[in-house]
User: Fold these one by one.
Assistant:
Number 1:
Amino acid sequence: MNNYTTAVIFDRKKKANKDTEGLLEIRISANRKSYYISTGVRVLPKQWAGTVLHRADAETLNERLGSMVRKVAEEVTRCMADGREIDVTAIKEHLFVVKNPQASEPDVLLNWIDGQIAALNVKDGTRQHFRVMQKRLEAFGRIRQWEDLTTENIYAWDAWLHTLPKPQSKADIQAGRERECISSASVHNYHKDLKSLLSRAVKMGKIEQNPYDRLRGEFKKCENESTEYLTEEEMKALESLHPLAGTQMAMARDLFVFQMYTGLSYSDSQAFDIKDYKRVPAADADGSRGERWVHVGERIKTGVAYVSQLLPPVVEILERYNWQTPKINNTQYNACLKVIQQALGFTSKLHSHLARHTFATWMLANGVPLEHVSKMVGHTNIRQTQRYAKVMATAVYDDFEKVAKKMVAKKNSKKMKAEDGGDWKNEEMR
């Protein structure tokens, strides 16, 4: 029997750098030949030193790698003992594919998903979303083999996902705040990612049918139950808040106000370039002639066109920052917004999406047609914008109610005065 060796090697194709993960492969060296099998595991260069380091899931990954190396070694031993050539395809089948579901290994589906995620031709951020879904599925525990993909288990997973709590900050923990569950949108995205991978499984012949095809329309993306926005009073209070100039707190406030009056997303606001805007003549309300900054661009996230104009509050902010937007990373931005929210006593949680919601709702409140607002914020279709119209309808009903109460109060006041007046007159006549 010829000797052979197995080893886990990192980034054989030299694609990794400090910000890009490299693939871990199992190398089989035998008969002066080398064979490579993907593990589906990717790590950064600083996270590999013959073993996975400096990751929260390092122990789990090292256990998985060790198990895979042992399985590869067992299969290679069998091949060589039988006098057969090493069949890499057969070894991969042994690692990832179920020949007989009834005799499948406990995590064969999860292992297959792991390998597929590693092979996806997507951005790192998108791959991370799939990884989170994978971890959720693993934690659920009832879907680990191909035969576990039942309607009952999909429903059970959905119910379980809706019970998951959101992460808490140290401040939340110290304040003893009750943990909220993850949003319906997050649950929808987990279903979407799993459905996408299982569609690949159908094409590869792993399963005959995607279980989600039996559940058409069951896990649709829900509209936000409550599309919050800032009232005009809250908008003015935010603008009037003056944190120390030059601090991150001031930059966060200014960036939020910028988003609030442009409707731009965080990523689009950070990519803002005044050179993209044209100055065009315009008539002001007082009849004088002025200029407007206008731009037709495409959203970074979706590529959908949007129309933007710089309103006076936005111009004031840009002038303070040498015609640039305040530059602050998203984590720091949200942390500062949380402090500002608490300082102002707002019930609505301040975040970049709230700024867009406020812009859209404010525009509708000022009589801008729905179709135009949709173009301003760069929605893919007008149905996305209609939720703001629903919010406005609720606000209008509230306004009607306020007016109705005032009218009733005024009527009652007149009635009381008339009755009091009548009694006075009668008393005088007596």
Note: The chain has three domains: 1-96, 121-222, 232-389.
Number 2:
Amino acid sequence: MKIAVVGAGYVGLVTAACFSELGNEVICIDIDESKIRKLNEGIIPIYEPGLEELVKKNRKEGRLHFTTDLKKSIRESEIIFICVGTPPRDNGEADLSAVENVARIIAEVMDSYKVIVEKSTVPVKTGEKVEKSIKAYNIHKVDFDVVSNPEFLREGSAVNDFMHPDRIVVGCENERAKKAMEKLYSPLKSKILFTDIKSAEIIKHASNSFLATKISFINAIANICELAGADVEKVAEGMGLDKRIGRSFLDAGIGYGGFCFPKDAEAFIRISEKLGYDFKLLKATQEINHHQTKHFVKKIEKALWVVKSKTIGVLGLAFKPNTDDMRFAPSIDIIQELQKEGAKIKAYDPESMERSKEILNDIEYCENPYDAAENADALLILTEWNEFKELDFKKLKSLMKHHLIIDGRNIYNSDDMKKEGFNYISIGRGDV
């Protein structure tokens, strides 16, 4: 099938690469000329495991193309995916101006039947607005269908998530569009849940908000465990064995970050308000998440007594492993708060340091974990990269000024670390 993917950001690029891998002819469009030029040169703007290989392979085989020519791409395509950004406004609502603009151009240009797919995360009833906009500008009066097809891609495993999805959600209200989407996704052999458009739009926000709530819940439990002298790891294990609950997303830490959970939770609160519902549970989820970084800073303050003039090593800057994404990363608030108190920060992350430099100032960026630990009064674990789980602790101990590790991701066993001679502080284990 001939597919246009509008937007070469995270979702658009992964979507375009994966659909081309499934044998489709895909054109990926973006207004950023520099980004398109780099993509045509084989330079991938984001770090995502497996994506670079997929892009290079399918460009070489002639199935994947990059361009800034939206109008030509619309005319040549059967299915058009809208994957443009929907950033939050100051009030938390999603900014849909890019979606509206693309819809208008599609309407003005299309001269044959098109399936127009919302892939961007959008508020419920956006499909109605897209359809209305296209009807208003449909110069050639051709038939079309609007479809909602939310993405469920996790940064760090997006390619695998696309190719092996738990489910595919398609909101459509016309048999012709349904058949087109069935044909498109048939190679994946995965369950397709067909719904009305509004339900599909809500599924995305509801899913992300529930996962955010689950994270905040276990972080609240971790705080209770610390007060009680219990172990949140054992509590989470016991909870997770209940098949109604499950173990996933029950890892206590310094809170969720990234672009999706904070943005989508806030947007869902605003969507609910517009519909006349006060989503108090989701507001509490956000409050707990905001508190978690502050709680972690207090742990550091308690352990160091005086933060001013202390050297603090930081391992991990990205909001999660296997990505270079720094958006809403907990490390930002933690580091900035410590800097306000006069701490000197040395940091290392395998992938996100260049992006971090755009956000965080006055940091000594290091070439490896050991450089970050050298002469440090304390070492913080802020992202659970696998390489941090395999450190040489004897070497680490010899480099540090004080043998203090404060682990915001619980990647080490408390007893093992104490045997290694470290003062080890983690989350929800009663060790503070």
Note: The chain has two domains: 2-195, 211-425.
Number 3:
Amino acid sequence: MCQPYPKLKASRPPPVLRAIKTVLIVDDSAAQRRIVAGFLTGWGLHSLQASSAKAAIRLFKKHRPNIILSDWMMPEMNGLDLCDTLRQITPDLYIYFILLTSRSTKAEMLYAFQQGADDFLSKPIAAIELHARVTAAARLLDTQRKLKLKNRQIKPALRKTQALNAAMDKDLLVAQQLQTALIHNRHRRFGRFDFAALVENAGPVGGDLAGFFTIGATHIGFYIADVSGHDISAAMLTVRIANFFSAEAFGQNIAVQCLKTGQICPRQPHDILQSINQIMLKDVTTDHYLTMISGLLDLTSGRLCFAQAGHPYPILQAKRGMFHHIGRDSLPIGISQAVRYQDHHLQLASGERLILYSDGFSDGVYDQNTALGREGLQPLFASVQHLHGPDLTQNILENIHAAHDQTPLVDDLSALIITHRAAGASGPETSE
């Protein structure tokens, strides 16, 4: 024999049912309303009764119950129409709607759920089934209550986060504008020597830079650097490095020394790297470090020297297409006080080209998820051997993007290319 459903004390509902504020019973049968109300009262729940849909709407507007037990078939307005009306009255207030019906086919139940009902009870109402449905409703209502509470707690943090994001976006725009003003693709000819510099950021701002500048009438200083990271702080550090080499303020240009006679003389590349390393370790409060090459070209002799700090080995591209990786590597800047940088000297012959590049070229992910690698750079630069100026840098970028299969870059790109034009190919100094 089945055990009768246990009766509960009416003084206070059990914890699982305390999420229920009020239950509204809607049925044109007074006897049915009394039976359901009796069960609810026995479980410590407060209930209201309505004999019609219109009466139910009035009670709903006044008391805002969160569970509705409604007969499906009623005169004037049926239970599903009532459900739709109540949900329109309070679209922001979730109500749990249970249909009371003698219908029990799967098609009818599916239709009821499609029209907005949450559950149903078959008549005659059994206490154990009613309790199960009401308990399920209570659990859902309690979950919704907790979510609303969490949302109220999260909103202030969300507003703060949005404000911080807005401030970061503003800082990002400023950093981007500064980088654009100081670091951009440049092309220039000095007698028989062509300089081409390019910087392509993987994101709105980046940590790569490359540039060159005149020192008096006979020397060209140049540099390329790659700051660790791609965030705003990395971008601002590139701006600071670029300012070290500002050609507009020789008194502050780290690559220039002014003699007592007033004569302007270039500093040696290794000495420049040494000075930047000391500044980084002393003044820069950041975890960033940077790889770098600083160099100097004598226009009168064609002699060139450079110093390397953790940066990829430059490529010497000979006139007949031979490639050689050259240099004297050392630790990146911002790592150690004890590091000592050394100069590498070479004579850049007519028709030769020196290529400085960041590891975004060699380590970037290309077709089939493979890196181009150091050896893979040779065909890339061989394909543009005959080009100069904007055509050179534009073609390099097009080839890189094609190799990436048009997917976004994962690392910044920078390159500085110095070409000694063959005799008869030189022209007047140009700037672009």
Note: The first helix runs from residue 30 to 42.
Number 4:
Amino acid sequence: MKVLKKQLSGMKQMNFDAYLKAFKSKEISDSYITWLEKEFDYKWFNQKPNYGMDIALEEYLIKYGVFYPKIYGSKELSLSITSEVLERSYSFMKKYKKHFIYIIEETEGYWESLNHHRVIHMCCEKTGVPADRIVYMNNDITLEERYNEWFDEQSKYKTKINVISHPFLLMNFSKEYNRLMKWIDFPKYEIVKYKDRKTLPTKKFMCLMGNRSWIREHLWYYFTDFANHPLKEKDGYVSYLDKNVTLPNSWNDKEASEDNILNGESSPAYDNLHHYFKDSYFSIIPETSNGIYVSEKTTKVLYHGHPFILIYPAVDIESPKTGMLEKLREWGFETFSELFDESYDDLPLIKQPILNTHHAWYEDLKNDENKFRLQFILKNIKKLVDMDIKDLHKLCESVEEKCIHNQKTFLNLKKPYETLLIKLKNIVKKQK
């Protein structure tokens, strides 16, 4: 490990990839690493996170922090958080004079319903590991606000852990699209202005839906109940994997099949959606129900440059507002008040007592607040669908520059990295 410390000190003079290669080439004999490999078949190098991270962030985390391992692979994070592993991680942290242990849930936004925060606090209390040496990171944009509310309402624990919201998924898909655009056979997608197109869109909207949620069920019935609603099949492109409904040829035959899509396997390399985005004017995005965060559903729309209405079906959390449009604007994106009444972003999320896991689902809405949210959303959609397609064209043409801006911002996204680094540096500063 002396060699490692020497390498760390010279990190600024080295290319990070070269540094990491050199790091990996050395035999790691620390008892903590050896124990992880023996007890859990843990591959230290292969399983260190780089999901949605740039080089500067990776460098900082390696220099100042210790990654808490997901010792049970892809299983739920809370199962990996144990007193024994935390205690050994803390010893490793002290031995190599690091400042914090970082725990990451990088692929989802849930945490409260699965008690990540409670498990961490319980393990800290049991082991004596100072809670302020823990940095927990998650995609959920409401993480910091909701954790602080929970902590202030309880009296058992006296010291907060550090919690940071960071859009790992958004950043990772930005990296992935940039990587794929270097492929010779990957269809690079550029937004062509309406005035330069040979053909104009024939559909008014797109709506890609995966697993079942209450909002997707109601949208599906709204789209398909032609007898009672004004929507017609010709108005939009709709998929719903829960109903085994896909858009024909919407996958890349070289990389995937329809079975991959129906199994919920989503990747930019799998998608063949360019035609559908070109042939429609705006997107309805029924986002994930597992918190409030950006998933691949939104990144597809940002990459293809569609105006959008962004709907969160989450009913397993309580929050005074969704706030995602506000967060997107904070990251540098444009939203579309020209098309939609964006006060929908300020409607409250009301936690349902009947729900005890993020997987729970029920057919009927249980309270007036959610009924109001649904009706408000449908009114926004109906307004555009009822519009003459020529008028809709003019409206969408007026926001073309916003769409182009969003695609460029998505492919060159830096602001979330900068924000996260500032927060980490403040944590380290307090501990010095």
Note: Residues 203 and 280 are 5 Å apart (CA to CA).
